[in-house]
Amino acid sequence: xxxxxxxxxxxxxxxxxxxxxxxxxxxxxxxxxxxxxxxxxxxxxxxxxxxxxxxxxxxxxxxxxxxxxxxxxxxxxxxxxxxxxxxxxxxxxxxxxxxxxxxxxxxxxxxxxxxxxxxxxxxxxxxxxxxxxxxxxxxxxxxxxxxxxxxxxxxxxxxxxxxxxxxxxxxxxxxxxxxxxxxxxxxxxxxxxxxxxxxxxxxxxxxxxxxxxxxxxxxxxxxxxxxxxxxxxxxxxxxxxxxxxxxxxxxxxxxxxxxxxxxxxxxxxxxxxxxxxxxxxxxxxxxxxxxxxxxxxxxxxxxxxxxxxxxxxxxxxxxxxxxxxxxxxxxxxxxxxxxxxxxxxxxxxxxxxxxxxxx
Length: 359
Prior knowledge:
Residues 24-60, 189-217 are annotated as: Disordered. This is DUF4767 domain-containing protein. This protein is 27% helix and 31% strand. The chain has helices at 2-40, 44-55, 61-78, 172-182, 196-201, 273-278, 341-346; strands at residues 83-84, 91-92, 98-99, 107-108, 111-112, 115-117, 127-136, 142-150, 153-160, 165-168, 214-217, 226-232, 235-241, 245-249, 255-263, 282-288, 292-297, 306-315, 318-327, 335-337. Strands 11, 12, 13, 14, 15, 16, 17, 18, 19 and 20 form a ten-stranded mixed β-sheet that branches. Strands 1, 4, 5, 6, 7, 8, 9 and 10 form an eight-stranded mixed β-sheet that branches. The longest helix has 39 residues, at 2-40.
């Protein structure tokens, strides 16, 4: 009996030891499982970067072709024609730079960086430039975009008539669509609506009598045409000027569209509300010298209306074209419009000595 008790104790002790080992093994397995979970929860960005590095290239001909198609569409919407770097011949900008040659002395936000052309986007530069597009707004002002990969991330840099200093673009469409192209997704460009009056006027001479007191269209100065931006406390305003039309877009998206006509008859004083609304987009307009346009409501009897002037300022050592806008009976300026959204943001608080401001 005593022997049986001893044997039972030995068996029980062995079982306890085995149970303890099993418990430790289970704990070790749980720890290992948790570590794996942590590794798998690493950011998508890291996973994407590893996957692309394995392929040996972050940028390829398909993406480059997709970007080229997008820039053509986007340029049309912006009323700007961009020239693409062909991979061989430097792009010469109106502001005096040659890219990609001059990337070796470029700065970003005033800081020295390494920036260079890199077709595959896998270089060791701070900014590996995979595409360059330039638009010469005038003989001395240009807008240049560098589509770059920084640590494998798509970033669009812009240089606007400011020497060789670059900054990340604030243009939402460019930023988002470059990311889409990089990720192999579709792009989207919002095209402006074409009014029936626009298609009609394109085939009509400015001097032709259009009826109802319209002696043809008034033509805007060529230097004034394009898309312009002005940043104020209420947000970003937009101004779009074509050959015979002007569109003002407020910061909250309200649109005021005007078609410019020469008035050949006196303005009647007794006009019904329905008649006024039917001519809401018509403006009685006239040229102010060679660089300005004035316009009033078609049935407006009082007030000075609105006026627009082309202007030029030296910004960061470069001459930049502007459009000055004002309303009222004098020629004072209410808003200054810049040739790009990025420049409007940079100069939002600027005041120039040779501009007569209303406020």
